[in-house]
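Forum > Structural Biology > Help requests

Title: Can anyone predict the 3D structure of Large ribosomal subunit protein mL38?

Hi all, first post here. I have the sequence for Large ribosomal subunit protein mL38 but no way to get a structure on my laptop. I'd be grateful if someone could post the structure tokens.
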Amino acid sequence: MSRPQQVARPIVRSLRQVTGSTTATCSARPIGSRQFSSTPSQKDETLTTSTTAEPSAEAQKLAADAALLGQKKASHLASMIKQGPEEQLSQFLSPQLGSRRRRAALATTGNVPFEQLPYQCFQEARKILAQDREDKVAKILAENEKIKRLEETDASTFRGGEEYKRKRLESMRAYVERLKILADINDPMVKRRFEDGQGDMNKPIYRYLAHRKWSSMEREIILQRIKQFHIVPDLLPKFEPTMDVKLTFRGYKVSPGAILNSRMTETAPTLRMQVFDKGERLFSIVVMDSDVPDPESDSFGKRLHFLATNVPWSPTKTSLPLTRLSSGSAEDGPELGALAVPWLPAFAQKGAPYHRLSVFVLQHNNNEPLDTAKLKELYDGAGRDGFSLKSFRDKFGLTPVGFNMFRTVWDENTADVMARHGIPGADTEFKRQRVVSLKPPRKARGWEAKRQKPKYRSLWKYTKRIKGLKY
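Reply #1:
Sure, ran it for you. Structure tokens for Large ribosomal subunit protein mL38 below:
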């Protein structure tokens, strides 16, 4: 044993005796305790409690929570959860709750509320965040007073007139919205509710967090599919989505661009849509096939598979089942929107390449509803063929804001699906036409001309121009 260890051993023993005794007071605090905190630690609170005085209800609750926490930490289950594999941890808490560290913390803290977790550093940090939130709220109140005074001021007093006043008000209101986000961006309770899917999308902070999460990965995937499958410029000259749109067929979540079985796409999907700005708005939903073969012109055309309009939407809504619109139910129509063109199953003839079926969400300008009867007259029936999304956008003054897509090919269920819905063309098979060269036949020369005799029969397999042989 080294000399420093021999000197330090008696000191460590005395410190352990002091901290382990139950009759110690605050004057016998160990040397290693933190002195910078304004609130005592939980161990100090239990040591300074008098044994003769009757403890208060809050003290009894804290003591019970501390005892429960100690039992949890000392139990074999807690150590097994922290050190066990993922399969063992998933037996106690669902993986949907987050990371392994968070699930282990939830399993070891028992029924203690999240905002009352007995961690001193956590509580000190919450005090700092609460003070910062109070400062942000004070700035919001002051800015609202400025906005109110500016609204009451006559626009003629400004050099820029009404235009300057309008731009100034927009800038100040945008600053207030930013302050609302900054006031709650670091609140652990806000982050927990958002991760658990319990956030109120009417509040700016939850819309901001949802938009940040969508922009981190899902938006990049959609932009990649738009470029990869040439949606731009085949369908639109320019387009970037600003809202989240997901597809679900019969409960199956579809990744953008996936090839689906014809039987799965026989019924209309359910759209999971999320907007990130406040207010009500009207949408039109378009589903179209951009790869319809045209043998006469040796090219590809477009076909409309579904059209719904006047769909009311807000940040609090998330699901739009197109099957309820396709059924034509009168009681569901006004709530979900108006059906203009019913759902047509996705199909592709045998031998044709894959078909790109695009789902577009278009926002109405100034929330003006469209005439459903006029849309039916234009696009239902024979109007499905040759549908142009660009023409539809320009004619009715719409703005594309959301996008998703899937693909379809000929499979073992396509013929049955086409027969059930009366779609012709199931017996059609496309084949590539052989292109015959226009160059005249060339006489054998060189190596081939010298070896036309049967003597070189073993070498004929290396050429196709042997006289008297047909290939």
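DSSP finds 18 helices and ten strands in the chain. Residues 21-55, 68-82, 329-333 have pLDDT under 50 and may be disordered.
Shout if anything looks off.
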